[in-house]
Amino acid sequence: MRNIYKKKIAELISYSNFVAKSNKSVLTYHSINDKKNDLTSDIYQISPIKFQEHIDGLINKSIQFKNLKNLFDDKPGILITFDDGYKSICKLGIDYLIKNKISALLFVCPKFIELDHNDYINKDDLKKLLDSGFVEIGSHSFDHVRLTECNDEKLEYQLNQSKFWLEKNLSIKIESISYPFGDTDERVENYALKAGYKYGFTTKFNSLEKTKNNLRIPRLDIWSHDDFNIVYSKIKGQWNWMSFFT
Fold first, then answer.
1. At residue 16, does pLDDT exceed 70?
2. How far apart are CA 77 and CA 27, in angstroms?
3. pTM of the model
4. In terms of Cα–Cα distance, which of 200, 229, 220 is closest to 22?
């Protein structure tokens, strides 16, 4: 019940926030699934129907969809990203994007791929997504640890080994990383730059207009209770006040 009240208060603040405006942003999704599970928090588990409503709404609003290559040009638009690499996002989410010729950036952890678990994406899945021409792959560290809490040796391993594994097994160049739990600092970013990453994505709630550091890119979290009107208000910048709390 307490979370419902928090949600209502957040919506009220956001819809009354007419100052912030945005025409370029990055959306963060995690799990697209039709049955709730214990893999991630309920707030990140979005139904396929709701996800498709989000995408249909964006298409109807003539929102332009971006990829990593044109993310920072002068044109407005959004980039859709997925963290963690849950297997269900393939058929229940990304396939719908591919059908509509929409790009997506997927961040994965090699350790989870190596486990070949039914709940996580595998190498064959990733290769099929890459073959579509609409999906880019990025690192989510090697095994999803909080990078700011790693000592230098472990931090270097998490960044380098993830990049090396993905490049070797998928025959692609890895230039982006989504920091697990959104945690980053100057030390993590310096090590990421040294490892060869050009782009680092956080969970800092903000639009791309505020980006001054390509290794600290803000994103907009999309939650399970968000209808399209809420998603659209986030894209327009009405929820950017949350940057003070993330």
1. no
2. 11
3. 0.92
4. 220
